[in-house]
Amino acid sequence: MIGGVCIGGLRLDNTAGVRLLTRYSSKQPVDTPFDIGHIWDLRFRSAGVRPPHIEDVTVFSEKYIGVQPDLRDFLLHRVCPWHGGPDQLYNGLLCADGKSGYICASRGLPRCSTGFWLPDKPLHLTRIFNDKLYYSYEGTLNIRYVGCMDPLEQIPAHSLLRVSLSRWWAPEGVREDRCYLQLSGWYAHAPPSRVGIRQAESLRGRGSACSPAD
């Protein structure tokens, strides 16, 4: 991944999402010790970035603790995923740009940039825009895949997915900044390799981190 690796997570004390940046507020390096399935004790503070990316935190110290083996079950007991179609994501604020979904300030901002989704239809792998990987929802919405797990040709309906919003940017010919919908990964019933949870400790309390990528 150009510029480093995005590492998402979930705090254990309040189930709030976090995105782990370095102490210099940059992405984690490609050889980061953080991996899906790891449990960590961390010290961090808010990076204070532009909403809706409120999950960004800068990490100052870390200590490896262990592994959470069944992340899907763990998450379903702690988070409230969105159910149904893409219109249910991000407080119903997704707009359409052709077959891409995005949020913009003129429509309103969601409360977060990461979350979990149980889609009512399967997602199919497709390659568009210079062979970049996308997942198609019923042929009406293409979602960029930015995760680190090997892609599946089809993600079954009702799979637990991790979704995120890209950083703000304006495509060519567009006058407003947008954050586009991305697929960060999925959690299987039987945990594959690299699936698990990370634990985090903020400067004010404890938590946990757990995501393929953001």
Which descriptors apply to this entry?
214 residues, globular, mainly beta, 41% strand, 16 strands, 1 helix, four-stranded mixed beta sheet
Helix content: under 10%
Number of helical regions: 1
Q: What is the beta-strand fraction?
A: 35-45%
Dominant shape = globular
Average pLDDT confidence is 86
Enumerate the spans where pLDDT stays under 50 for 5 or more consecutive residues: 190-209
Termini separation (Å)? 11 Å
One letter per element, helices H and strands E, the order comes to EEEEHEEEEEEEEEEEE
Q: What summary fits the major beta sheet?
A: 10 strands, mixed
Multimer state: single chain
Class per helix and strand makeup: mainly beta
Radius of gyration: 16 Å
**DSSP strand tally:** 16
Q: Would you kindly provide a written description of the structure presented here, covering whatever features stand out?
A:
- With 214 residues, the chain is an all-beta fold.
- Helices cover 3% and strands 41% of the residues.
- It has one helix and 16 strands.
- It has one helix at residues 71-76, and strands at 8-10, 17-21, 38-46, 56-67, 82-84, 95-97, 100-103, 114-119, 123-128, 132-137, 141-145, 154-155, 160-165, 179-187, 198-201, 206-209.
- Strands 5, 6, 7, 8, 9, 10, 11, 12, 13 and 14 form a ten-stranded mixed beta sheet that branches. The chain has a four-stranded mixed beta sheet with strand order 1-2-4-3, with no helix packed on it.
- Strand 10 (132-137) and strand 11 (141-145) form a beta hairpin.
- The N and C termini lie close together (11 Å).
